[in-house]
Design goal:
This protein is α+β, with helices and mostly antiparallel strands. It contains three helices and 13 strands, in the order αββββααβββββββββ. The chain has a five-stranded antiparallel beta sheet, with no helix packed on it. Strands 1-2-3-4 form a four-stranded antiparallel beta sheet. Strands 5-6 form a two-stranded antiparallel ribbon. The radius of gyration is 24 Å and the shape is elongated.
Length: about 240
Amino acid sequence: MTPPEHTPASQRRALAPDTSRLDPRAARAWTEKMAVTAIGGGIYEIESDSGHTYAVDLLDGKCSCPDHQMRGERCKHIRRVALEITGGRVPAPGHRAIECLACGRDAFVHEDDPAVCDDCRLPSGTTVRDRETDALLVVVETTDDRADEVTVPRQGTLADFDGGDSEETTVADYPNNRYYPRDDPVVRAVYPFSGDPDTPFADLRKYSFPLSRLDRVAPRPDRDPTDAGEYLAPA
């Protein structure tokens, strides 16, 4: 079984509490040197101290080792995977390991979430403030699309865009976005009180921003969130 690229594996090492009170399999799970790699879908590859490699299906509680296959025991490999997850060394089922696109730190996120850590990601419904216009918005989604790869319609004059006649530009090249990281993840957000007050939230126009341009804030009813300013990149 070959793990996907960039999937981190824990280092071989012993994990030792007071094993004298544990049953033998639990004690070996703590003390033997094993390397655990998350494959995805709740499957983990275990490289044991003996040099053998086994596959653990944690969701079904199964292991490919002889102890589990022939004796039906909850083997040391299944126990070790649980220990590695609890210790934060490998992701739990339904999660994956990433290098955050915003801050560069290693983190675990849900398998379907963008490669942005919880500290940096702006969840749907988060109130944020635009650093350039001071306007309030509500986040629709944080993506793992880069600002220099997402195109949006141009608005404003050609001088704003350094000339050219293309009808589109990237989020990174949009006026007022040029001083933010070009590889920033793109966040899509709306002005919740703009336009017709009867317009459903899902139908409001979405705008694309570099993540670094938006600050997470608590709602402030004394501010007018429709004061958008002149440089906004439509989604």
